[in-house]
Amino acid sequence: FVYEDAFIRSRCEHLKQIAAKAGCRLLYSVKALTLPWVLELIAPHVQGFAASSLFEASTARNVLKAEGTVHLTTPGLKPGEVKMISEYCDYISFNSISQWLRHKDYLADNVEIGLRVNPEVSFLDDPRYDPCRAYSKLGASTHAVKEALGQSSPASHGVSGLLFHNNCNSPNFQEVLSTVQKLESELDYVLDNSKWINLGGGYLFDKDSTNLDAFYEAVESLKSRHG
């Protein structure tokens, strides 16, 4: 692999400025590139890494040490790996209600538990890349989340946050705002009582991005629910 240090640093700084303006914590998805020496280059510019497997979680933790957080979500968890994954991670967002219920009692004590929610709103014409396509198994529906948590605080079930990821390589941040507005209309009390929201990915923060103000509006709307 050939990579350009200066370009990677400049992109990291660009994203860091956007995250700071929005008041977000910036995570890098290890899935995109797992070379440890590249992750070491990125680590000083982010607050943590996002992982989707035991290998990615362990690689992320080895690079970050105790200096950042590791977040994980994945459709497939091997029962024998759950405990070890939770020891590397600070946050685990379970992909479904059944996955959460199967594994929630086998986690390290300090890991934060979240649920991946499928907003069921699509922006892509090609279903191969659409996390919200018909019959998608990526995330639980808002109905399933509400049914699992009832009318009580998510914290009473051991759940502290939510994750959504419903796009792919989109430069249009009006779409993330529309997604947040839909979630707010359907999961109002769950959002009100969540400690954190992971906005996932699927968006391009580059020179071709449009409606970046819509991204800031989406984040501010979520933050305002907590005063």
Could you characterize what this model shows?
- With 227 residues, the protein is α/β, with parallel strands linked by helices.
- It has helices spanning 5-22, 36-42, 54-64, 82-88, 97-103, 142-149, 174-186, 188-192, 212-224; strands at residues 27-29, 48-51, 69-72, 91-94, 112-118, 140-141, 161-163, 196-198.
- Strands 1, 2, 3, 4, 5, 6, 7 and 8 form an eight-stranded parallel beta sheet that branches.
- α5 (97-103) links the parallel β4 and β5.
- It is globular and about 50 Å long.
- The N and C termini lie far apart (46 Å).
- The relative contact order is 0.12.
Topology (SSEs and partners):
Blueprint lengths: L4 H18 L4 E3 L6 H7 L5 E4 L2 H11 L4 E4 L9 H7 L2 E4 L2 H7 L8 E7 L21 E2 H8 L11 E3 L10 H13 L1 H5 L3 E3 L13 H13 L3
Helix pairs in contact: 3-4, 7-9
